[in-house]
DNA sequence: AACACTCGCGCC
DNA sequence: AAAGGGCGCGAGTGTT
């Protein structure tokens, strides 16, 4: 049962069972709570506009259909990438009206003097858009897979909102201790922390004059007059240099990053009541990976993990998929040899024999095949791969070739790569054309694998979410890794749920396949102990 | 003053 | 000869 839903700013809204009449309610959260036991699939324009308020009112839902994300997936598949994806735009297209650009949401327009205020779409309009989308899905070559994609993507919006609502445990006190230990006391505004300033002073002393270690220009100039020609100021390049400024400079760079990315200012902005609440953007990456729009949740440095501590009497269940991308490739390509190796817990060890007995060689070969790498031993190892695992090899080669020719590629469930830009088309027929073509080939080569891996991870989370007992909560997700916060006595049940979810995600995407997707969960009280 | 871009580096 | 995919975010730098 689909039920279209709109909300207004007063906490009310409209509901419309797709097979019924629209009805206005004053208390939307109460109405949703009442209907939820019948497990409707809620249809809304954009979860981010609706679901946070429901969560704040203590209401969670099991299923939804996100019209905006579905529209984006459909448009891309239909070769209409970049057309406005909002529900307003979808509705306007259906009625031959002027199509509003994305970002012109009605609420963002109300203070514009000469622009007439655009009315929010009603539940009837949403039902109409849904019917159109379902029909377009049916017309696709593989509607079943695309329906799974839409369901997984929509479930992702629920999870993202819930994780933003619940937050990841974050001990301010432990964080403060760590910052004090590494950087010194919190500085007054605009000043460098003491330990950072000391390192900056050491850099200047080593050069014999003041140098701002944050300035690439000054560093290159200072090294040049010291007789060292640098192409960049990257750490990896600096490490090759023999000069007394290098050691304090490397230490400075590491701490400066910590200070600006995860220091006191960051904590003031993002940590409240012992929780780090990130803003996830579902489908924010073209490959379908999530992005964040603030808080940098997907880039928490390893050194910060000691700050993530379960509440008293609770545990963190941390699980990551081992070697997800090569397994995805094995399953997609239907390469029997690779799939057999991917039936083992350590795929690379299982492959080692084929690559001269070295596990590392197997790893380089697989990564080069998926990323388009060609340096070092890669060409030699790729030749082995072509010989031993021809279907897997051909699968990524075909994707690369399509990209080089400017064609579209798709993930397993039907997410479509962006088309080449006009700039690329101009470039590819010019003197640097071969390079532009190769660059795009690397992108599409990786896209088919990365996007399918993202789909597997989404499916895993959607299933896991449904298996979690109250009051366990998903609190973190990072591409192929999930974290659940739960009472200690639920740890075993959650661990089992993770394994079940991995198996089920594999079945949902690939049906019967010899490929295994190991998802080992560990129970810890502190994230730092998870690896 | 405000914005856009590059560089560098953290994560996968 | 060499050629590695995807992001976010900050400071510095350049442009308007």
Automatic annotation (TrEMBL):
The keyword Transferase does not apply. Its EC number is 2.7.7.7. Pfam families: DNA_pol_A. Keywords: DNA replication, Exonuclease, Hydrolase, Nuclease. GO terms for molecular function: exonuclease activity. It is an enzyme of class 2 (transferase). It catalyses: DNA(n) + a 2'-deoxyribonucleoside 5'-triphosphate = DNA(n+1) + diphosphate. InterPro entries: DNA-dir_DNA_pol_A_palm_dom, DNA/RNA_pol_sf, DNA_polymerase_A. SUPFAM superfamilies: DNA/RNA polymerases (SSF56672). Residues 301-490 form the DNA-directed DNA polymerase family A palm domain. This is DNA-directed DNA polymerase. It comes from Nonomuraea mangrovi.
